[in-house]
Amino acid sequence: MAESSTALKTPLYDLHVELGAKMVEFAGYMMPVSYPAGIIKEHTHTREKAGLFDVSHMGQVRLIGPDAAAALETLVPGDILGLAEGEQRYTLFTNDQGGILDDLMVTNDGSSLFLVVNAACKEQDIAHLKQHLSDRCEMQILEDRALLALQGPTAAKVMESFAPELNKLTFMKGAFATLNGAECFVTRSGYTGEDGFEISVPADQCEALAKALLAHEDVEPIGLGARDSLRLEAGLCLYGHDLNTDTNLVEANLKWVLSKPRRSGEAREGGFPGAEATLKEFADGSSRKRVGIQPEGRAPVREGAEVLTLEGEKIGEITSGGFGPTVGKPVAMGYVATEHAAVGTKLKVLLRGREIAAEVVPAIFVEHRYFRG
Amino acid sequence: MSRTYYTKDHEWLTLESDNVGVVGITNYAQEQLGDLVFVELPEIDREVGAGEEVGVVESVKTAADVKSPVSGKVVAQNEALADAPESVNESPMNEGWMFKVELSDVSELEGLLSEEQYQELIGG
Known about the structure:
The complex is a heterodimer. By secondary structure, chain A is α+β, with helices and mostly antiparallel strands.
């Protein structure tokens, strides 16, 4: 196991080791890829009860000031001015071509905009924010806060004994709360397709909170391996794989991310990097599209595998693929030429030189079970 | 007792007769891969070379090649793994065996690792 001396540790590093986790370097941090239970059991546990994930490697940033929402709108296609206190939104940083620099969550916490960005992109995101927003709002990089995710159908039951008022939150809402004596900011969100919470907690109180949550009979620790299989089954994009600077939100089948007030002819039309190209493609359609792909048989198809028509013409590529423990078969998503993107289209995927039969399916392999009240 | 040989690529081979070896991957290999979800095995009667990639094991996260430790002809494959790839995790040296190879040159065994040498390799 390659432990790099330069890799950072989250506040839960010692706990992961104590729990027997297999640690790997990911985005510059030593992270648990799995615990002794193994990826399949961890995945299944999260779908049946509640899993606890350490996602402290992700970046947390607060934007403060009366102009913060308008300022952030110059970098993202989402409606940020319209975010009421306690509301959360998924959005994207775009480049001047409309390509995706990162995906992020933004929550209006009442006194600031609370941003959560990907670990691998956070330095670049912070530089981007500083470059474009520093004269319009105050920025705090929350390096002293850790991030936990509690995910699964019994997450709310678990939360009942910590901060029962949080169970009133519906999907994509957030609130401050005291958990195990720690002042936390909690959102009803996640990356598994299940109900659950994401908990921003002071780093020095993170381990005590994690241990308290793990002490609940329903809660098991879950590693990055199951986090990936859970999000893939739920059809959620992974930045750097399903999204990158060469993909835009129309191609990525994320048209809903272009909020209504930012669309052509609306009050705050465009106004984000690459808006012109994005709005044009939004109206005209894109030449390729992200879709779900269901391979036949049991062999998983992986990122980079070519997607072919039945005649053998290359029309796209798999961007995420693996085995879905809940559906019990391989699952994948990728980009294909739009004329072949209709659900039900029969395709082939090239796997180790052999052609595997496959079909375009909705990019959601398990039903989302978010709590919408 | 029949002797078991190992490769630096984490396969094992146990002789079940003078010139037929049973092949699988080691416990260390299955631990590194994690939960297996798919195993692809060489066809019966296939002629294989020593070190040739003849099969694939897929875990949730990743895929790895399985190489034949020796040259010869494949004479059996463990068909049960098609429906139960997890046998490799649960019992890599027994129920999780992968294929049997009829050795074309028994002297190739001398180039494989002993149990002690293999344990040393994996730092056991």
